[in-house]
């Protein structure tokens, strides 16, 4: 009887060890897949920035990245025209807005344009090219964090866009790079 009990315990322990081994292998495979997805996402984000840079260069701008007062700026120059802009990107968010950005305090005093890149529900990448005047109007209507930053929440697709807190219609800025000229 004791021998049979002992054999049952050993058999059960081996079954559990086999199940653990199987779960470990499955966990490893899931980890590999997650890492692949993370790499794809990171490459996609850097590719978005590259695509925007190429678009700007195709418009005839020389693009120079720089940092001033801990703010990453893109300086665009074309003929005698010089423009400062910041580039921000957001992943898709499901909800009352699908893109979310944080801007530094007084950013409107440092830039002429902001490019907000976002992904819509159809997983298409789009850009909002917003001029300084519109940025100022938007920021004036948005409640700031205690340290002065502004959170921008945008509901947009490839055709229309709106900033949720300021209630400003941004449709005319969707994929509109022509205004940089």
Give structural notes.
The structure is a single chain. With 181 residues, the protein is of the alpha+beta class. The chain has 2 helices and 9 strands; from the N terminus they run αββββββαβββ. β1 and β2 (71-78) form a beta hairpin. It is elongated and about 95 Å long.
Sum this structure up briefly:
The protein has helices at 2-58, 132-141, and strands spanning 62-68, 71-78, 81-89, 99-103, 113-119, 125-131, 150-156, 161-163, 168-169. With 181 residues, the chain is of the alpha+beta class.
The succession of helices and strands, N to C, reads HEEEEEEHEEE
Report strand %.
25-35%
Beta strand count: 9
Query: How large is the radius of gyration?
Result: 25 Å
Overall, the morphology is: elongated
Largest sheet: 5 strands, mixed
**What distance lies between the first and last C-alpha atoms, to the nearest angstrom?**
91 Å
Q: Detail the poorly predicted runs.
A: none
Helix proportion range:
25-40%
Task: State mean pLDDT (0 to 100 scale).
Answer: 87
Helix segment tally? 2
Which structural class best describes the helix and strand composition? Answer: alpha+beta
Task: Please give the order of strands in the largest beta sheet.
Answer: 1-2-3-5-6
């Amino acid at each position: 009887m004791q021998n049979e009990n002992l054999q049952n315990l050993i058999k059960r322990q081996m079954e559990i060890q086999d199940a653990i081994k199987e779960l470990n292998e499955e966990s490893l495979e899931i980890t590999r897949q997650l890492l692949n997805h993370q790499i794809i996402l990171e490459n996609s984000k850097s590719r978005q920035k590259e695509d925007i840079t190429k678009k700007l260069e195709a418009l005839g701008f020389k693009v120079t990245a720089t940092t001033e007062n801990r703010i990453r700026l893109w300086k665009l120059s074309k003929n005698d025209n010089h423009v400062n802009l910041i580039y921000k990107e957001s992943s898709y968010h499901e909800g009352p807005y699908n893109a979310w950005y944080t801007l530094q305090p007084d950013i409107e005093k440092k830039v002429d344009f902001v490019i907000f890149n976002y992904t819509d529900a159809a997983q298409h990448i789009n850009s909002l090219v917003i001029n300084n005047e519109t940025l100022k109007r938007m920021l004036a209507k948005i409640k700031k964090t205690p340290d002065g930053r502004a959170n921008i929440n945008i509901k947009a697709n490839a055709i229309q866009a709106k900033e949720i807190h300021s209630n400003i219609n941004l449709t005319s800025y969707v994929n509109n790079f022509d205004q940089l000229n």
